[in-house]
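User: Sequence recovery, please. Input:
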């Protein structure tokens, strides 16, 4: 019995320390970002394609191209707020801009002004969160006004840091 317990304890310890090593290796990998510039480009453009997926139909309603539907608008606003939580900054590691990735429109200025660039991402997150919140009220005028601020957060960044 004693021996059995000892074996059990030892094997549990081994299992635990193996697990520890695995999770450590995992977090290492995550923080260090060992992805290639192309993979980072894929991540950020895919994330922004998702932004567009939600922003476009709201824009069409705001411009009057499609009929305003408060319920649908609120769902899109929620989707955008959720998507904006994916950390876009992970997709912009050093040396992944237009000088390094063929198809990229990311200006090298991003890496010279990383603080400002990150602030512009924070601003989008805040505006998208506010849009989701106001959209729960169904107040059309307020929703349209906050939509403009949200789309403005996209434009503010693109104007300075995207080539076309
Ligand atoms: C913090 C800056 C920043 C914010 C905020 C931002 N973008 Fe972008 N976006 C960029 C940059 C830089 C690129 C170019 C990326 C590249 O080509 O490497 C880009 C590219 C894109 C693209 C092109 C993707 C492709 O397939 O080439 C779309 C679409 C897009 N953004 C939509 C949006 C929308 C919609 C929003 C707002 C909801 C938004 N972006 C907010 C910086 C930003």
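Assistant: Recovered sequence (164 residues):
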């Amino acid at each position: 019995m004693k021996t059995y317990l000892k074996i059990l304890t030892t094997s549990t310890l081994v299992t635990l320390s193996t697990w520890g090593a695995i999770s450590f290796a995992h977090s290492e990998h995550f923080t260090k970002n060992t992805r290639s510039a192309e993979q980072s480009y894929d991540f950020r453009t895919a994330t922004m394609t998702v932004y567009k997926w939600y922003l476009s139909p709201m824009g069409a309603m705001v411009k009057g191209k499609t009929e305003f539907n408060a319920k649908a608008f609120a769902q899109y606003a929620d989707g955008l707020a959720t998507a904006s939580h994916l950390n876009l900054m992970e997709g912009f590691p050093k040396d992944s801009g237009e000088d390094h990735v063929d198809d990229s429109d990311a200006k090298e200025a991003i890496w010279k002004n990383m603080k400002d660039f990150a602030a512009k991402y924070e601003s989008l997150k805040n505006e998208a969160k506010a849009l989701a919140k106001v959209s729960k009220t169904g107040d059309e005028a307020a929703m349209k006004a906050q939509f403009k601020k949200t789309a403005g957060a996209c434009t503010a960044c693109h104007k300075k840091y995207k080539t076309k």
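Residues 41, 44-45, 48-49, 51-52, 55, 104-106, 117, 120-121, 124, 153-154, 157-158, 161-162 surround heme C (CB under 6 Å).
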